[in-house]
Amino acid sequence: MLHTTEIQDGYDWGRLNLSSVTEESSFQEFLRTAELAGTEFQAEKLNIQFINPKQGVGLLSRNERLNIEKKHKDNKDLLKIPRRPKWTPETSAEDLQKAERDSFLDWRRNLALLQEDEDIILTPYEKNLEFWRQLWRVVERSDVIVQIVDARNPLLFRSEDLEKYVKEVNPQKMNMILVNKSDLLTDEQRKHWAEYFDQQGIRTAFFSAALATEELKEEAKNKEEKPAKTEIKERKAQEKDNENNEEEEESGEESACEEEEEEETPADLSLKELKKAASEINDTLDKLEAKLEKIEKKLPTPEEEKSNKLFKKNSSKLLTREELIELFKNVYEGPTYTEKVTTIGLVGYPNVGKSSTINALMTEKKVSVSATPGKTKHFQTLYLDKDLLLCDCPGLVMPSFVLTKADMILNGILPIDQMRDHVPAVNLLCSRIPRHVLEDKYGIIIAKPMEGEDPNRCPHSEELLLAYGYNRGFMTSNGQPDQSRSARYVCKDYVNGKLLYCVAPPTVEQSVYHTFPERVRKEVEEKSLPHQQQRAMRVKTNTSSTELDSKFFSGQSSAAHVKGRTNFPHIRLANDGSLVETDPSAKPWRSVKKERREKLRKKFGHLDQH
Prior knowledge:
Structural class: alpha/beta
Number of strands: 9
Strand order of the largest sheet: 4-3-2-1-5-7-6
């Protein structure tokens, strides 16, 4: 009789740690079913691709970019958000939920086919049906749907299909765009966007939640820190005002007496003076009539007035908190969902400042602020005033077209802390922000291009991260700058707006729209830096032509060049050029002095240099 652990059936029973498994993930379940079925899977370990960091990894060429943009235009109509299926009061809750699930699955299948067939990259969109149900409810309840977008790239965060869906639900509902973080834009840039959205026919407002919260904090501090000295000054000012009023009353009585004396002597006006005054009045009236006729010609017709009431020209002014509240109150004039209350639904991506705008409008924290989607589980209704109601929707990531995955990281759609490959994102950042801006911002010196390269090219990710990591002291255990850690800091600075890059509207050229400041710091040559810093700025130091030449010519060969065989251990070359044979039985090391023992860290110190 044999125990089960002694049976030679291919399993090493003694090595396994047996444990009861009641729950497992989908991946573990797949592997377990494959093991039960007797199939084996081998990991591909030899398909390794070595990437040169100086080739611009992750950057698209001009032709690739144009091809992808053409695909985006052709498939723009297929990029939709899920619709709520039509229902009546007679439909039961189970039937409605089943219809919603079926339509949602169809929508997901269509987007998956679009990605596979056309090879298009989409942003990671919300795949939980409950979040979309909250959006449907917000759209049905709200009178005005406000999409909050980031001022640096508004078109990426704008969903045109959501605007169509709002009109499908009720044509009387109104769409609006709130451009948050507008303090990062200049006046001219805001004008360009206001003109672009005028052409698109959608109402737009510019706002900065960060500035509004700062103003509220300053007001609160001023109220709390009001010293007693100001009260004393106010009292003194009141006493002075009272004294001045008494003096004015006395002077007023004297002037009244003088006026009475003057009234007693009335002025006699002649008829000629009266006629002159009448003629002057007639001339001014004629001029006013001519001006009124010109103004009437410029005034719009009643039909144009109706269209202007429906849509007003967008202002490029950066609105304050009070001005934005006033705009929300007066922007909608149609029938409301609730009587005498204008309901405004706020929809937006995570990380565009949706929660911060609500908190700035409410003057106190009502909504928790978070950069990750899914913080708000259900829509919330917040009364801003008696006749104004805010309807907060959970942060939804809607599907939109993106050129590369690096673009999603820099726009804050993908979390930077979960970034696996930092090279494409940093290369894209370096292509957008010039070398001198990075050097001035961080106080670093980025390695210049090598001989034979374009001297005006953008820095590579490796060059920027090595200089940044060495300057900040982010070093690995091998003594080299930590590039992955440095990349996270640099990308976060870009997302937060410290490294500013604003995308232009389609009607304006990017070079005209966004200009960078000139160099502030003086240029420092790489030769003047310490040798340790020079080595840290480049991974491979012996690459320049001068270093190669010096290394080649410095080496002097002491061996003799003999034609034919050179491996003769018992024959050596004498000083006069003759060959001398040595005794193979002799011990040559006896006459040679022994070398002094040297510390290994000194002997191999050149290998530790990075």
